[in-house]
Amino acid sequence: MSLASQRLSQTQPLTGAPSANRREAILLALAAAFVSVAGITLHLAYAPFGLGELLVTCFSFALSFGTAHLTLSRHLPNRDSLLLPTAALLTGWGLLMVGRVAPNFLARQATWVLVGVVALIVVVRIGKDLSWLRRYRYTWLVGGLLLLAATLILGVNPSGAGPRLWLGFAGAYIQPSEPLKLLMVVFLASYLAERRRLLVAVGRKIGPIRLPPLAYVGPLLVMFGLTALLLAAQQDLGAAMLFFLTFLSMLYLATGQAGYVGAGLALFAGAGAVGYAVSSRLALRVDGWFNPWAGAADWSFQIVQSLLAFGAGGVLGEGLGLGWPTYIPAVHTDFTFAAIAESFGLVGLLAVIGLYAVLLLRGFRAAAGAGRAFERYLAAGLTAGLVIQAWVIMAANVKLAPIAGVTLPFLSYGGSSLLSTFIVLGLLIRISDRSGRRSAGALQTGAATSEQASGQRTLLRTAGALVVALAVLATTCGYWTVARADWLGARADNPRRVLYEERIRRGRILDREGEPLTDIRIAPSGVITRTYPVPEAAPVVGYATLRYGTGGMEAAYDDALRGEVGRGVLETAWQALLHRPPEGRDVQLTLDAELQRLAQKALEGKDGAAVLIEGDTGGILAMASSPTFHPGHLEETWGALREDGSAPLLNRATQGLYQPGTALQTVVVAEALRQGVIEDLEANVGGALTERIPVDGAELSCSGPPEGAATLANAYAAGCPAPVRDLGDRMGPKGLAEAMARWRLLEPPKLALPTEASDWSAETAATPELEAIGQGTLTVSPLQMALVAAAVGNDGALPEPELVLAVQDEAFRWREIELGEPQAVLSPSEAHTVLSAWRHWNPQGERLSGEGLPGHWGIAVAGEGNPHAWFIGVSPASEGSMYAVAALVEHAATPDSAVPIGCRLLHAAQAGDH
In CATH, what is the architecture of 595-633+654-912? Predict the structure, then answer.
């Protein structure tokens, strides 16, 4: 006998009974402590698990396993002391999980635990040995087959829908496949014990397989064939997998021929392929195994929700009573392992797998030490069947195998399953008792026959294969709970993500004076709703929704507003352990709520945009876009907003690109001065002053009547296009390209919000004449033109735009945002020359002959329909801070439609002295 085989078959001394009893009592006490502490935790964390449920759990556990321990201590003093405590811990854990996911079933489960323990005691006490099982093997199996066959006629489903795999008696239900799997193992153990030598020694050898005569193997194939046919008629994939794998394992244990296993697996795969083709139910399960994500909301909903539970549990779990394992349909029967994953995490999963590994090793240890072949095959077959059943359903939960529809032994809800499992446990405990081994002495002295040595090797190999299967399962659990946890948590169909988001105290977005532009409302249930007290700020603030994500500043500063910025790994783990969602930080903008309301109101009924900035700092005081949306009503209006041809979700101020038309004259005139194309604005333009230029089927003329002599200054002041066209011709493509780049019209402004810029170059440009009058291929945004105005009013310094003043850090201290340095694009004298040519308006946008609000206005021909109206202007720097504005009205009725909008904003900013 090999050293490994000797170790597997070693047994404790027969005089060690008191030690075994004491060890078992200590382990049961530890299991009881776990159940009690976990039960109290569940009671405190989960309201449906009340005091009554706690008492039922603890009382049934204590009564059941206390009685079992006392009985076994008296009648089987030399038993394996690990089997009962391991089963007790799993059973108590199962009671807790039923109380967590289906508390209305807890009393029934507790009753079945008591019934199961009674059955265990009966098995322990009945007969002097197990000959009563071996002798009537055909009777037992035929009875089980008749019960299974009865489900084809009398079968019901307790839930009212689905396959009818149960038989009902006075409100109680049993699943005949549960006792049948036990009876089949008994039959196989008895038959193989009697015919093993004939199966191995007699028959034709084909390759690695020796085929025995049909007379020897016929009864075996007939009984197993009947079982398989009945299961196929029920389309019970889980039971079929369990029966077939158990059959193969026992056949290998008896013959030691691996060829049987290979051929059997190939046969099973072929039968599965046929079943996939003819059974829609089986096909759905296989499809859900290969690619559950394709049917996440339909036919593979269960497995997807199971994997989401694994991801939610992570390493340590959400905690018993917390999390949402009830999102998984039939979680108390088919997906208890997934519920444990969410509640206890990878640590709990490994503990459960480890407990089944203990049952595996101790069961095979009992088989190795059994004195009779029948008991050896019975113990090994029962243990293999138990572990295979556990593996099949756990693997299905974690997408390692198709959904099986079998229960997890000791853990899942199910009366007939629990009863059968306790009978299996009773048989294993009985076989493990040394006083029942007739040949224990021979095994301890090493007086084993070659046949026994061969049997030990097959036991060891079978146990090793099952251990490897459990190890693969454990690795797969780690993959979903750790490696793929973030991906699972971020999936849009993960309901836990919604619940988590609903409880985040999202930080506020404030205006420059501290007025909330966004806030939160907390319902009595703890659900938090995002509110928008200043809906006019929507173009800047954006939105934050569970269904459609975030936009605007809500997206730009999402991490800070959610409170996730600056959090260390330990802090994040600690908050997750306490189930505290992060508390968001506030963000303060440069925006002024009153000016924003005014800007948005000024655009009401029009399509367009307006941007008001501080000329020296670049701080944006107002940024309006019309049409717009109400961020507080986005959930119910999203579909209509997306289909609206006017694009209300688009921020026209930063992302809308328009032909600049007359608005571009400022850049061309300023650059002509800077490049030395002209010395000043007093040059005579002659007949070009009033010349009309044909553009896109229209004629582009002066924005207003020229005043005074035909000088370039007066032509520019009136927005006349022909003189500026001539400047563009003199500057040429290179000069114009230098001008556009210098004034940053070819790059998106650096801002927290998404910004756009024209993909323009000298190679793709139209003629210099068209580009100079803003009717070429160059397009600009209102924000870019507001910065152009700011540079003119700020002594030629082009500011960096900014929307954020300060952000709270992880300690809720305000951290100010450093403003960018302005870039000089003109000399102060050149800027003053350009500014002095602008006309002046009053706050209502009416033309003044004297001092007022200086600005430049005009149109851009944009295809068919009315042209776009532009206005750029500044407030007089002599009257406090300087402000700049750009306003655009799409397809305006008159060229001066944008003037009142810009002038009102400039006057309001000046009056408020920001």
Answer: 3-Layer(aba) Sandwich (3.40)
Question: What is the CATH architecture assignment of 495-591?
Answer: Alpha-Beta Complex (3.90)
Q: Which residues contact 769 (CB under 8 A, 6 or more apart)?
A: 725, 726, 728, 729
Q: Helices in 102-212 by DSSP H: which ranges? A: 106-125, 131-135, 137-154, 177-201
Q: Residue written as tokens 């064939």? A: 225
Round to whole Å and give the CA distance between 355 and 352. Answer: 5
Instruction: Give per-residue pLDDT as tens, 790-818.
Output: 999 999 999 999 999 999 988 889 999 88
Alpha helices for 479-588 (secondary structure H): 485-490, 495-502, 538-541, 552-556, 558-562, 569-577
- Rounded to whole angstroms, how far apart are CA atoms 479 and 472? 11
User: Average of pLDDT values for 702-720?
Assistant: 92
Nearest to 243 by CA among 228, 254, 253: 228
Model pLDDT for residues 615-629, shown as the tens digit of each residue? 889 999 999 999 999
Taking the whole predicted model, whether its pTM rises above 0.90 is answered as no
Least confident of 425-429, 582-586, 655-659: 582-586
CA-CA distance, 819 to 743, in Å (whole number)? 19
Residue 5 above 60 pLDDT?
A: no
CA-derived radius of gyration, the chain: 41
Chain segment 379-426, per-residue pLDDT in tens: 999 999 999 999 999 999 999 988 877 789 999 998 888 999 999 999
Pick the closest to residue 368 from 357, 359, 356, 376 (CA basis): 376
CA dihedral sign of residues 881, 607, 639, 650: negative
**Interval 102-111: pLDDT, tens:** 999 999 999 9
In contact, 838 and 666? CB cutoff 8 Å = no
Mean pLDDT of 215-240: 55
Query: What's residue 777's pLDDT?
Result: 92
Bridge partners, 173 (sequence order) = 168
Q: Write the CB contacts of 743 (distance below 8 Å, at least 6 apart in sequence).
A: 667, 671, 788, 791, 798, 825
- Which of 367, 377, 152 has its CA nearest to residue 252? 377
Q: According to the model, what pLDDT value does residue 250 have?
A: 83
Question: In whole angstroms, how far apart are CA 211 and each of 185, 193, 221, 250, 517?
Answer: 22, 18, 13, 16, 82
C-alpha–C-alpha distance, residues 363 and 108, integer Å: 29
On whether the CB atoms of residues 403 and 57 are closer than 8 A, the answer is no
DSSP track, 626-694? ES---GGGHHHHHHHHHH-TT-TTS-HHHH--B--GGGGHHHHHHHHHHTTS-S-S--B-GGGGG--EE
Rounded distance between C-alpha atoms, residue 344 and residue 361, angstroms: 24
pLDDT in tens, 110-167: 999 999 999 999 999 887 778 777 777 677 667 766 766 666 565 555 555 555 555 5
Whether 305 and 327 have beta carbons less than 8 Å apart is answered as yes
Q: Residue 799 gets which letter from DSSP? A: P
Q: Write out the two tokens for 716.
A: 């520019």
Does 511 score more than 50 pLDDT? yes
DSSP designation for 352: H
Does the pLDDT of residue 217 top 60, yes or no?
A: no
Residue the block writes with tokens 């007359």: 662
Burial of 284 (0-12, 13-18, 19+ CB in 10 A): middle
- The mean per-residue pLDDT over the stretch 243-268 comes to 76
Q: What are the sequence ranges of the domains in the chain?
A: 7-482, 495-591, 595-633+654-912
Count CB atoms within 10 A of the CB of residue 863.
10
Q: Is the pLDDT of residue 242 over 80?
A: no
| Residue 626 buriedness (CB in 10 A; 0-12 / 13-18 / 19+) | buried
SS (H, E, C) 187-207: HHHHHHHHHHHHHHHCCEEEC
The residue type of 452 is Q
Strand, helix or coil for residue 812? coil
Beta-strand runs (E) in 685-771: 693-695, 698-700
Cα distance between residue 555 and residue 557, in whole Å: 6
